[in-house]
Amino acid sequence: MLGKAAGYAAYQDKDAKTLLVEQHAPLVKRIALHLMARLPASVQLDDLLQSGMIGLLEAASKFDGSKGAKFETFAGIRIRGAMLDEMRRGDWVPRSVHRNSRLVGEALESLEQQLGREPTDNEVAAHLNMSANDYHAIVKDVAVGKLVGIEDLGTPIDTLASAVQGENSASPTDNNYDQLAEERFSVAMVEAIKALPERDALVLSLYYDEALNLKEIGAVLEVSESRVSQILSQAMARLKTKLRAWTQT
């Protein structure tokens, strides 16, 4: 009798997971298209969709509704993470992108310390000994050529997903170094985001939390789509610079 009950419960659980996957399959395509807008033409949509579906399946198998989180939020993290992992394996990011991201971040940080405020684009360009047009080209290169997601800063997908569900990265009795490092990195990242200029933090929130595209964010801020792209890239460059001690390998 107990065996039958356990079997029925397992069947119901499996059926619920299948339903979650079916209901949220469109989420995979939405996230893939969201990422495709910032990727080179060499990246295929089908590759993102395939890796995203794997992420969705993993999310359905690991989701715990009793934690109070929405499945869509939990699944979105794992789907995006699976796609990012696929891109990292492809190693498509040019070295110039990493170099430019570092240059912009260091210039922004240096000027903010000197001026006591957020520098203008022209001031950053002058600091880098280049024209405003060349600076904007570099910022565009960083925006288009690199996946600028919170996950790409080094936070493991499982850690982010656990945070969404209200779990601790490490239990009081867990002495595992990796888990402790992940927890401290998460704290450092939160502090780094708090230290960003208000506009940068807002754009990050609208882009990653609210999943608005660049055009929609531009409408909110009443600026051009290209300007939003620049703000987003500069915000991520700032974060990477502030978190350099955690992300350098």
UniProtKB/TrEMBL annotation:
Residues 47-60 form the RNA polymerase sigma-70 domain. GO terms for cellular component: cytoplasm. Residues 214-233 bind DNA. Gene3D superfamilies: 1.10.1740.10, 1.20.140.160. A motif (Interaction with polymerase core subunit RpoC) lies at residues 47-50. Residues 192-240 are annotated as: Sigma-70 factor domain-4. InterPro entries: RNA_pol_sigma-70_dom, RNA_pol_sigma70, RNA_pol_sigma70_r2, RNA_pol_sigma70_r3, RNA_pol_sigma70_r4, RNA_pol_sigma_FliA_WhiG, RNA_pol_sigma_r2, RNA_pol_sigma_r3/r4-like. One of its GO terms (biological process) is DNA-templated transcription initiation. Keywords: Cytoplasm, DNA-binding, Sigma factor, Transcription, Transcription regulation. It comes from the Bacteria. The keyword Transmembrane helix does not apply. Residues 20-92 are annotated as: Sigma-70 factor domain-2. GO terms for molecular function: DNA binding; DNA-directed RNA polymerase activity; sigma factor activity. It is found in: Cytoplasm. Pfam families: Sigma70_r2, Sigma70_r3, Sigma70_r4. Belongs to the sigma-70 factor family. FliA subfamily. Sigma factors are initiation factors that promote the attachment of RNA polymerase to specific initiation sites and are then released. This sigma factor controls the expression of flagella-related genes. This is RNA polymerase sigma factor FliA.
